[in-house]
Design goal:
globular, 5-stranded antiparallel beta sheet, 357 residues, alpha/beta, 9 helices
């Protein structure tokens, strides 16, 4: 997606790169869309919702968008990105911003706390920090003290080039928290320059600064584990839950039963669950190696055995058994949320038709 806010960019273009209202780290002209909405504060703040669900031992992933959100002023750009994010099984994403030189990772929101600028740790915090370091290490200047003039007092280039979002400042309603808590996607923000509206002559330099970092970050999607969850007939199972022991954040399978789960190197106990059935495997992830294939198969009457050439190194026998009573295993995203989205979209389209007529 080239730009989430083309109208804001067009507004900034009327002043150009020489105006401090556009080109400084604090310049905000062009930040808002045509309806004067800040799009990176316009997504639902899902962290408080997620925290309450985890506390009550409900689902720790694909959190349902609360109904109150649809009563707020949701920008058409935001709605489009929400629908797009829910329609595709994205795994890893990055959002390009200006105003600093740093990688920011979740959580952005302070959640239920009132303390500003304090670390807000996600279940995948260690993984986020490693992915952030992948980008920083590939960048020509980010994280290299003295390579660029400090954008502000924080001077992130002399502090490793990365930061937890909320530790920098709280951003309720940001896109990267939404992606992590409502979809399978891990997303971070790349702040590429102090100048929010650089001159056209500088763009080649920015590309060269970020080229290897972008490529390395995209390549990182091929780490962790991947595979299929199939039923007794060999058909892929959609919306099965993939849980990793020690990480309180699950992912789900796509429509064909395939899944991708980014993980740190190590040995992980992974459980696939669906409609009352569970299967657990031990999956080994090696550093700087392609994603380990870790498949699952459900059957009510058979016991699964690892083969001798299993790349995961599994040597134990596992039985497929009905899930424990009361445990939530179905993880399909709430149809109630989708109906709300469809209703809201229909309402917006109706207004457009009426206005045009």
């Amino acid at each position: 997606m080239p730009s989430m806010n083309p109208d804001g960019f067009e507004r900034a273009a009327t002043l150009g790169p020489d105006s401090p209202r556009t080109s400084t780290s604090w310049g905000s002209y062009g930040r808002l869309n045509s309806e004067r909405i800040d799009l990176n504060r316009n997504f639902p703040d899902m962290l408080p919702v997620w925290l309450l669900q985890v506390e009550s031992q409900r689902r720790n992933h694909h959190v349902e968008i609360p109904e109150w959100y649809w009563d707020t002023l949701v920008a058409p750009e935001t709605l489009s990105v929400i629908l797009w994010s829910l329609s595709q099984p994205f795994v890893l994403a990055g959002s390009l911003h200006g105003g600093s030189v740093v990688v920011s990772y979740p959580f952005d929101s302070c959640g239920l706390r009132k303390v500003m600028r304090s670390y807000s740790e996600a279940p995948d915090d260690a993984l986020f920090r490693k992915l952030a370091k992948v980008y920083v290490d590939g960048h020509r200047k980010m994280g290299k003290c003295g390579q660029v003039e400090p954008c502000n007092a924080r001077n992130f280039t002399c502090k490793g080039g990365m930061t937890n979002g909320a530790e920098w400042y709280c951003v309720p309603g940001g896109m990267q928290d939404f992606s992590y808590l409502v979809t399978n996607c891990l997303e971070m923000t790349f702040e590429l320059s102090c100048d929010k509206y650089p001159d056209e002559d500088e763009l080649q330099t920015y590309w060269e600064d970020n080229k290897e970092a972008l490529l390395s970050y995209m390549e990182a999607v091929h780490t962790g584990i991947k595979g299929f969850v199939r039923d007794g007939s060999g058909k892929g199972v959609a919306n099965a839950t993939i849980s990793v022991e020690g990480v309180n954040h699950d992912v789900t399978t796509a429509s064909d039963g395939d899944y991708w789960r980014l993980l740190l190197p190590g040995t992980h106990r992974v459980t696939a669950s669906w409609e009352g059935f569970e299967q657990t495997r031990t999956c080994a992830v090696k550093d700087e190696s392609p994603a380990t294939v870790c498949d699952f198969s459900f059957s009510a009457t058979t016991t699964w055995f690892a083969s001798g050439n299993d790349v995961t190194g599994v040597t134990s026998q596992f039985s497929i058994t009905p899930a424990e009573s009361g445990r939530q295993t179905s993880n399909s995203f709430s149809l109630h949320s989708f109906s709300l989205i469809r209703s809201y979209l229909f309402f917006v389209l109706t207004l457009i038709v009426v206005w045009r007529s």
